[in-house]
Task: structure prediction
Amino acid sequence: MFENNQLIQQMELIPRYTNGSSWLVFLLFLCVVFIALARLVQQSILRIAVQNTFFFETQDDQIGKGVRPNNLSRIFMSLQFVTISCMFVYWLFVKNNAHSIHPLVIIIPVGYLVYQLFTSFIAGNLTGQKKIAQEEIYFTLALYHVLGLAFLMEFFLFYFQAGSKETAGKIVVFTYGLFLAFRIIRSVFLGLSSKVSWYYIILYFWTLEILPILIVIKLLFNGEMIGIID
Result:
């Protein structure tokens, strides 16, 4: 009887690994390869990404301290974020709900990153604050690199361990929201340190970032995501 129970437990673990096909495992391996290549080009890239994200300093201050990421390493870290975010969203929200969730949901994190970089660039050129826009883009990319690392660790935790997808979804959404909130705080610090008025800071975030993402969530999800993570 004891041996039969062990056999049943082993059989229950198999679908957790195989469900979703081997290409998810391949993409997971690819994420690790991207990080390894980034560290091969610049060994300190992970430490630099963390410093760029959590240390409230200007870009010039950090460069003056030798905190300067290699461009090729940043490309590899960006590819890692794109890969892990798309596969995570697919596994959590699309794979078993393709009939009720729009497939474009997969690219929402990447699409929102591109949108943030685009609006920063446009706002900087229209207002003449190109220096602030460059720093905003610089720190935004660093934050998403750290977010990609967080997503990777969470995927390892949830994909290879038995557990509820609903719980995993809540934690991932919380992590993403936490990083977005931290980005706003980081951007406010950047704006105030450059003597930008509170009025323009609030106007920028509400009209160009917060309101558009609320509209996108309403159009694409139409309540389905709330049903999944509630």
In short: Residues 7-20, 224-230 have pLDDT under 50 and may be disordered. The chain has ten helices and no strands.
